[in-house]
């Protein structure tokens, strides 16, 4: 990749990362760059977003069991 193309790619990723932070997506630069690359090769962005949401949901720890007050 020539230096100018690399600089443009880097600047584009920085802009996307800045927008991601404003929108509070919680994506780091590396993850965002992977998602952008997947979109560039033709994967559906909405499907990728749904997958990210699902993976986050699955990786959340289960809620603690509810504590029940003993009967008097």
TrEMBL record:
Biological processes, Gene Ontology terms: gamma-tubulin complex localization; microtubule nucleation by interphase microtubule organizing center; mitotic spindle assembly
Presence of the UniProt keyword Cell wall biogenesis/degradation in the record: no
UniProt subcellular location: Cytoplasm, Cytoskeleton, Microtubule organizing center
Alphabetical list of Pfam families matching this protein: MOZART1
InterPro entries (UniProt xref): MZT1 (IPR022214)
Domain of life the protein comes from: Eukaryota
Keyword set, alphabetical order: Cytoplasm, Cytoskeleton
Family from the record: Belongs to the MOZART1 family.
Protein name per its UniProtKB record: Mitotic-spindle organizing protein 1
């Amino acid at each position: 990749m020539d230096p100018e193309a690399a600089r443009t790619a880097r600047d584009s990723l920085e802009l996307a990362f800045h927008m991601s932070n404003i929108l509070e997506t919680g994506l780091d630069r590396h993850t965002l760059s992977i998602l952008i690359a997947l979109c560039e090769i033709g994967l559906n962005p909405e499907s990728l977003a749904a997958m990210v949401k699902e993976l986050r949901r699955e990786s959340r720890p289960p809620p603690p069991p509810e504590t029940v007050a003993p009967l008097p």
